[in-house]
Amino acid sequence: MGLHNVSKPGSSARSAEFLRRAGHWLVPAVITAIAIVIAVFGSAGTELLKYDRLAIADGGEYWRLLSGHFAHLGPEHLLLNIAGLVLVWLLVGRQYTTGQWLIVTVFSLVVISLGFWALDTNLLWYVGLSGLLHGLLIAGALGRIRRQPVESIIIIVAVAGKLAYEQVLGPLPGSEATAGGAVITNAHLFGAFGGAMVAALLWRRDKPAASI
User: Fold this and answer.
1) Which fold is adopted by the domain 18-206?
2) At what angle do helices 130-143 and 185-206 cross, to 10 degrees?
3) How many CA atoms within 13 Å lie on the side-chain side of 44?
4) Confidence class of residue 156 from pLDDT cuts 50, 70 and 90?
5) How far apart, in whole angstroms, are the C-alpha atoms of residue 51 and residue 56?
6) Contact 125, 51 (CB under 8 A)
7) Domain ranges of the chain
8) For the chain, what is the HEC assignment?
9) Band of the pLDDT at 209, cuts 50, 70, 90?
10) Most distant pair of Cα atoms in the chain: their distance
11) Nearest Cα to 113, choosing from 59, 48, 51?
């Protein structure tokens, strides 16, 4: 008697749903993986990859403009940022496709680094994902404001209030002790600005054409 495999009803649908959900987390998974790989090399990895103004200006080490965002001060700093990334994704991660989130990520990182280089000339070095997290959160909140206006406005107002507080009074109480080093508040500001810019660009591209 011949044998043949019989798939359980709905197994294909469940597999497709699992893959869809897994794909939804691809961008934060890649960001986390890069940060963890750098962290494995300890202080040597951080020194090689951190944003370092003098190394970029004098040595042409331009990779630091992007790699510095994935390096961290230590395990506590890394875990704090990964937790923040998970929270951001739970709040707004379904707003864009994986491709669009990649655009948001790269655009935000570039804006932050350009902000450091052009506007924060006294900043000699920087590490961490916090600037990018602000960019991702603002981009996601603005992107879904038409569908979920109340939740989106709450997020935007909360982030705007935090940014205003940091610009006037400095880092939030306890944030530097938690991170294990100085908090660069301009990274948050530049990140949020970059996220808002790319959200506007994506919104314009996805906006339906006016009827003739």
Assistant:
1) Rhomboid-like fold (1.20.1540)
2) 30
3) 3
4) very high
5) 8
6) yes
7) 18-206
8) CCCCCCCCCCHHHHHHHHHHHHHHCHHHHHHHHHHHHHHHCHHHHHHHHCEEHHHHHHHCCCCHHHHCCCCCCCHHHHHHHHHHHHHHHHHHCCCCCHHHHHHHHHHHHHHHHHHHHHHCCCCCEECCCHHHHHHHHHHHHHHCCCCCHHHHHHHHHHHHHHHHHHHHHCCCCCHHHHHCCCCCHHHHHHHHHHHHHHHHHHHHHHCCCCCC
9) very low
10) 80
11) 51
Q: Which amino acid is at 191?
A: G
Residues 90, 96, 106, 138, CA torsion sign? negative
Place of tokens 């709450």: 154
Question: Which token pair is 35?
Answer: 């940060």
Q: Which residues contact 102 (CB under 8 A, 6 or more apart)?
A: 27
Give the count of beta carbons closer than 10 Å to the beta carbon of residue 2. Answer: 3
Residue pLDDT, tens place only, 57-99? 998 999 999 999 999 999 999 999 999 999 999 999 999 999 9
pTM of the full structure: 0.87
Would the CA dihedral through 174, 179, 183, 186 be positive or negative?
negative
Distance of alpha carbon 61 from its chain centroid, rounded? 23
